[in-house]
Structures are given as structure tokens and as C-alpha cells.
Amino acid sequence: MSDISNAPNVSQLGGTVVDLARYVDNNTRWGATNPSIGYYPNKGLVVALRSSNYTITPSGQYEITEGPHFMSRVFFSELTKDYKLRKLRKIDLNGLESEYPRGFEDPKLFFRDGHWHFTCVAPGVPEPGKRASRMAIAKLDHKCTKIIDFEKFPGLDPATPEKNWMLPYEPSRHFDWIYSPNTIIKNHKLTGYLTDHPLTSNLRGGSNLHRLGDDTYLAVVHKKYLNVESQINPATFAKSEQTSMRYTHLFARYDIKGNLLQLSDPFIFFKPGIEFGAGITMQGKNFLISFGRNDVSAHLAIMPVKQVLESLKSIEY
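and the corresponding C-alpha cells:
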């Protein structure tokens, strides 16, 4: 599908969208976005949220709403049966704020060894010669109130920002992360394979990896598009260029070794704009996909398992 304006939304694909949160702590200067949904064994659904102190203007500019710098906070919450937040609490960084004063971006949940963990982006220092953003894993205490262990990963190049790596919920002997559509990471070593399939061009990671019953994984991945428009100021009649971003998403199926097998056609969650699918799990006959909009709000897409799996098409190499 070359024209992203034709990408269907979740409702058109037979699913529904539920709103999770717009703000946290009733603070209208801090949004709640890019949620990651998870299933707590024998207890039910949970979600991690990113809360940040900025908004994105219609012209694509970032505006800080509180404080001198961009910052993020991580929140954790159980979900009720009707997908309402319950016992929302801010995660204590447990001393890490001294090294990471801007907080952590886009927490993505997974459950291992009796603890919730989340992968995240640890922002780097935006100065020449300083280390760029890195991927990291945070381990939470049993009450999911504070970080008790933290590991940051080196990435490829100190000057290259890292994000959007995808991790299997359970450990794999074949790979540690899926780094890109055709590259995996095992023991800090990258291994890739060649593909020229048009849908894999500029494809980026999204959610972590939900394991299906046939030793394959399902994830939500995305593509980002920049749209530049010339607009006329009605007061001065002067032209100016405005840049906006649009995202489309695809379901991606990987084999047990992390090789890309199938992709769906691109779709959007709600309407064209900035959307990010950060989590996926299964509940009964539905997939639950958690996503954020415009970096300020959190939502949940509910889509039939049968329809999602039937949308996947094999990738030929």
C-alpha cells in the first residue's frame, strides 16, 4: 500500500479502541502516553505508561509544558475487567535520576523470574561528543513501585541513538533482541540477512514479542512518514513550510530464530498522525494492542485474533 492515506483504521478492520488515560496525577501539563500492556500470571492485565512534559503542535513543533527540559516519568497500573486504570503509581527510579535526570522513555513490559521488567530508552546527553540514547532493561520490585535492577546496553556506535529494539517475553537461546526487520542481537553481536521486500523498507520496531503457540512471535511494528506542507499566513500572506509526522503500523510475525516471516498491510489505530504501538498481548479471542497518540494520550485497540492472523502475508526474499 503506497498511499498511507488509504490505510484503514482499527474500527474499519473489525476492532474497537478504548481510551485509557489522558493525564496522570490530574496534572494537565503531563500527558500519559505510549502504554505497554502485559498479562500478570493468574492476576490479570497491567500496563506501564510514559508521562512527559511536552505537547506537539499542529506544525510538528515540540513545546515543553513544565520545567526547563524534556522529561519523562514511568507509571504502572493494574487494569480492571473493563480496562480502567486501578492503583496507578509512579515508579521510583531508586537513585537512577542522578544519572538519568530526564527519566526513561517508552517502557515496554515483560514478566520474568517472578518480576515485572520493562525495556526502555535511556536518553543520552544532547551534546556533541556525548553518548547518545541507549536501550536498557529495568527490573521492578514485587509491588511494582520502584526499580531494583537496571542494565543499559552499548548499541552499535556511541554517537548513534538506539531505540525500538524488540525483546521476547521469555528468554530465547537464539537471540536477545530483534534489532531491525532483518537483524537480531545475540550476546551484543548483530547478525543480519539480506531482503529487498518493499514493505521492510524503513520498518521500525514497536512492541515486544508475543509468542504464539506454533513457536513464532507476533509484534506490532511501524513506519514513520514526514509530511511537508506550504501554508499561507492569513495575516501576512506569507508562505511557510510546516512539517508533520504520520505513522502506519503493521503486524509482523517472526520465527523462533527471529527471522521475519510475514507482514500485514499497513494500518492506523485511530486517525492519521503520530501513533505508537508499544504493547501486545492476547485475551481470549482478541489481541490487545496498547498505543499512544501524539505523545499525550494512552489507548487500547481490541482486535480479533483470527482476523489479525489472516491478515499476515508471507515475505519473499
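(Above: one complete record from the training split.) The first strand starts at residue 16 and ends at 21.
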